[in-house]
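look at this fold:
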Amino acid sequence: MQAKKRYLILLSAGLCLLLLYFGGVQVPATSRSRHDRSRSGYRSDQPWPHFSDPLQPFNPWDQTDTVEYNLHISPRQKRDVNSSVYKGKKCRMESCFDLSLCQRNGFKVYVYPQQKGEKISESYLNILSTIESSRLYTSDPGQACLFVLGLDTLDRDQLSPQYVHNLKTKVQSLPLWNNGRNHLIFNLYSGTWPDYTEDLGFDIGQAMLAKASISTENFRPNFDVSIPLFSKDHPRTGGDRGFLKYNIIPPFRKYMLVFKGKRYLTGIGSDTRNALYHVHNAEDVVLLTTCKHGKDWQKHKDARCDRDNTEYDKYDYKEMLHNSTFCLVPRGRRLGSFRFLEALQAACVPVMLSNGWELPFSEVIDWNTAAVIGDERLLLQIPSTVRSIHQDKILSLRQQTQLLWEAYFSSVEKIVLTTLEIIQDRVLQHMSRSSPMWNSHPGGLFALPQYSSHLGDFPFYYAGLGVRPQPKFTAVIHAVTPLVSQSQPILKLLVAVAKSQYCAQIIVLWNCDKPLPSKHRWPATSVPVVVIEGENKVMSSRFQPYETIQTDAVLSLDEDTVLSTTEVDFAFTVWQSFPERIVGYPARSHFWDSNKERWGYTSKWTNDYSMVLTGAAIYHRYYHYLYTHFLPSSLKNMVDQLANCEDILMNFLVSAVSRLPPIKVTQKKQYKETMMGQSSRASRWADPDHFAQRQTCMNKFASWFGGMPLVHSQMRLDPVLFKDQVSILRKKYREIERL
């Protein structure tokens, strides 16, 4: 029987196969192919693409409502479109940005004029004024690559008094709107109670977003820019420095982990903060919340509210912030939080607890080096996680918070300029910054990739790379008086500098109204002497990045400076150990005049200094490029009109970059008197207006930098054995002591 069953099963299987083969319905190959192609958007009238053809750009997402497009889109894609917050969900630089506008005049930004009667917040005014005072600004829309609205788009919460109504109509009526192409929209708050979506309430078209609290779901990589949430009191320029004054080893503070903030009883963002009490131990983990906020909080308060409010009032927030190793940054109603910037400034390592938040400037900043990225679902594991972090790592994280705070977040100006520089790097990819430039001192804003994309060309990266500057310098002598005698100081100076073993060449910058002297008037030297006419005969021309300068070091000299060859050699030797600073001889200082409530300038010989004048100083040639291309034309024009203060401005710039004071080296006693005795500068130093102008310059420069970047120092570097009671023959720089 079992054998018969096996035969019947085999026979039945064979009959089924025959029926399928001969009697089954056959699907034509052409029909199947047509179906597959229609799903992928293929049309029979389109030619098969050749690999040599350029890639076609994505369809602009605002054109996806057309009948032709809908014929070739799946139902799932249609649902995604309809549920998307932004219609331009798939916009990228390649598809929604016209790069040709940037090829004509470079990366220039135009700001629409503000419309009369339109309300505008102070924060948005700060953003617009920052752009208008930057080197990227243009007042001509025909030269612009990027456009920024004059309409306030920061607060799109309909319940906010700052909410601008009818924004859709107003934006669409702008003559240059072009469906948002090449436009940048700034936004801090979107959506409203209870769900707080990321909808801005108007169609942004193909515009880019610089948005706070943006989710990874709605963030368009390489197109949008995630910015931090900042308060209306955030300073426009400058800003306070980080609170880390010195490193504590081991790097532990009174508290391990802290938080103090609102607890939401209902609605979005309530889950995480409601669960914080499970982790709070009132010892080294202090997580405090209060539900005492809003008009009707008592209607919704739960059994924990009174106890939480009592505990909340026991602690001072600033004291906690400054005395904690880690600071919890949980999401609020929106993904971002003011606690983020507060933790960065306080050198309290942020512990991020906001799933799906695209962290600020994530395109360029490596947040793993400055923060701990947590998961809201694993809240109970946070304390054990932060306790397991080694103290070396904690110290590194803390130091990085200070770098990022001071480089990108301490003011509205830095936030806005960082946003613009990120976009510029996308546009000019061949001259974009590398990750180390963004994530190491002094930050991407001071490392201009137009100068070089190689780290070894910037003085502030030498120490990290383990390299030393070139062993030669180029002397630049600033000449403003005609050459009438062979005994003039400039000729003696030229001979002394040329004898230096480190001198590669000498450039005489001729800023005199008289014609250039003939070649035979200059003394014969062992190094090349190049005479260049200054551009427009202005003071700022002495800091032009001349292509003739091929060495890393520049020895800047006034025509009446009196230096010996030994002094030049010693100064250059010192500079090689401090290539990111100004090293030189004549020192000056600044002070705060409390009576006049302004900065003062002094040339008195005191126990400290904050400037080394460029009449006899050595610095890196990159600062010529930075002076010319980074500083605004308003400051350089002021210097040129006054024919004064260019040395002060260079000191401001170098100290702002390095965060360090200049270095004064030993000089002969007669230096000050000799300087005052020379004819060309004697009139300048004796002129009372000259000194008053320098006082004015100090305050004008401090205003633009947003604070005083100069740093005082009491250090002077002398040669070893200087003034020691040993034989003069044993001293290397013995001539300095003899003078």
Q: What stands out?
A: The first strand starts at residue 109 and ends at 111. The CA atoms of residues 553 and 677 lie 29 Å apart. Residues 77-226 form one domain. Confidence is low (pLDDT under 50) at residues 23-73, 75-84, 671-683.
